[in-house]
């Protein structure tokens, strides 16, 4: 009977002792045991290899694997592991120390050999610029238009380009080419490092924007934002001015050509699409603390303060940059190349993403290219009302201070209709059914369903305010009711921005240190206005930093409501598709969708819906190809188009720890991200600011990393301190009374929703947050505190007819108005008219 000590083979003597007793050989039993071990080991290795191969194959199908860090990166990571708290602490300390806006980098001096340009040279340069514009116009006569329902056309319509901006852009185009000609005449050679020719002498060209007059004691803002600052009435924060440069630009030729690599070996910047694919690939890291409403309100706010003008054909038609040969290409084209091995676009034989440069803004002098902001910088509700008097009049009823609305058969109020079938939004089948897209104060209102819902919400809220003001002040005329409603609405927008939105982005602690929280607990807090602060929007803010919200967007949203079963909707299907608002409770479902869907984290990763399907064609439109655009590639390309310097330049300007070397950058971002960046960028000074900023881990109590925190907080400090009509002002005719201010301090976005949706019954107190703590529980709309209009009630003073000669009815009305205790300072140009109701 076999036992444990029985040899596995019989007929052979057992070994005399352990193997080590026989130094010259191995016992038979040991050899058999070793063979068994080898067999088992090989079998185990084979199984492991098969499993690993299967895992790797599955992983490759989902995403490209990260390469293991190189020794240099491992060393850098070790540094980062030993000093993460130190690096983060230095960044936090630098940010907390900046309690006033950072001084913009001084304008670079004229870099030409001779600073003085004689009249002949200046005239020749301007002539060359005018000729370049003429050559462009000749070329434009034969340009092929972008197909109306194509992704490229919808992208164009998602941006903004009005007729006044087109006129200014032509002047800016002349200036740019005049600067190029002067550089040729004076043998300008671009310097090492950042390429920027600097600001030069004045260019003598007519400027139609300087025709205006100011009343600095007016209670209400101008539509265009002019006259806000006494010393700089046309420049500080007004519409139709160049973006402010936080740091000097970086152009390939020092003048206007998009940024290129600084490498001395001729290396080019990696294509924007490659950056998107390799660094900003898809990942789905949900942040359960916040909702998509954060992104929706952020986009609505962004459209209130920024509206970059695109270059276009003379009548505003979009330029097609991918259908022509290089010789036929429009000079304002800067298309995004698609590489042959692109995993998505190769399926559709797409070799180019259409990209048209932002329109050049006139500056009045020789110098580098600037871009035009068509919006006012101030949080003034211009996204609702428009930035011109003409736009405001078009949207008004001119009756009881209200704005035009379309009233459906069941009595719901929608935005005014846009019946233009060539606007990139309207569809023939919907128009046939009597359903159209909409008009608002901003041309981008139809870009996505959630944004359109926000426009409708605030337009309804204006009329809510107008009705309330008229009820307590029946003696107010249309103009006064409209302007006071507009003033209250913009104050509410600003309060929600600083009370609910910004603390999420930069953290409540830092927001408090920087003075970015409302003074809700101290109605006697000092006036924060500073006439020396320029509130104009920074180019880096519009071109990079405030595009952070694109990383928040999930691919699928929870389209749920109080009375329906849960369902989901893909993000790209909501673009230029506002037609569900025509349905009963359409706005309710849209707002609850935004309030009940968690966002993704602010990081370098984006959903495929953002990087592949933006403005994707619809099968019924018979457009080829059906593939969408990559919004991340377009964002990166826009930064280069604007001449935004590289990531380390902005870090240095914000007084953050340096990232001039790869080893230093390892202290700012994680090792895997750095590995991805190093694979395609030749130097830290090539890294796009958009990519670098999104790659930083968030600070404590915030969703932003250090650089985004710096760029965004600096801009919002400027918007608060540099606005003479700021809602918390304690001085001047613009101020609210304490009783009025208390009502504004009570506003939340949830209250705006409850007051103006169709039939929303319940929402969280702070709808941008999804946390379920007691401070953010659900509130019943029927129980919210009502807005008290009595704080705005005024009583007309008795008219002493015996002391005033009154010749007719109009004179009597004028006397009553001049003697009334009105909150408006100047009498409206239009006399009060009897109600038409």
UniProtKB/TrEMBL annotation:
Q: What's a GO cellular component annotated to this UniProt protein? A: extracellular region
Q: Which Pfam families match?
A: An_peroxidase
A single GO BP:
response to oxidative stress
Keyword Iron among record annotations: yes
Query: Where, by residue number, does heme b bind?
Result: 550
Q: Which UniProt keywords apply?
A: Heme, Iron, Membrane, Metal-binding, Oxidoreductase, Peroxidase, Transmembrane, Transmembrane helix
Give the molecular function GO annotations.
heme binding; metal ion binding; peroxidase activity
Presence of the UniProt keyword Iron in the record: yes
Q: Where are the transmembrane segments?
A: 39-62
Positions of the UniProt region annotated as Disordered: 818-837
**PROSITE patterns documented for this protein:** PEROXIDASE_3
This protein's superkingdom? Eukaryota
InterPro entries of this UniProt entry? Haem_peroxidase_animal, Haem_peroxidase_sf, Haem_peroxidase_sf_animal
Name of protein: Chorion peroxidase
